[in-house]
Please model this.
Amino acid sequence: MDKIAAEAARLLFADGGAGWIVAVLLGLACLHLYRDGLRVLEARIAETGATAAALERASQTNAAVAAALESRTRVLEDLVRLTGETARAVAHGDERARERFEDLLRRIGELQHRANH
Model:
């Protein structure tokens, strides 16, 4: 690069004025490179913004999925607790508890059927 600059400076002051043409052409080349560099930087900024937006949407989706899984886990824990209580009552011979237990088992089966499809 130093050699190019030194040669351009020598030609600038050479006889015949050819140096001014070289200086103008060199200036135009620099301007073109500067504009090209700006376009590249703008494209990188736009790409970074798009990536950030996509990451934010993915994060929100992951948070929603986690909340849904947590809610489903709580429901299943409640069902397990109720099933255990009802099973103990059935073991003691309570007919109404036996009906509730069968109803719970049927509902759990429906949930499993929906989860599999």
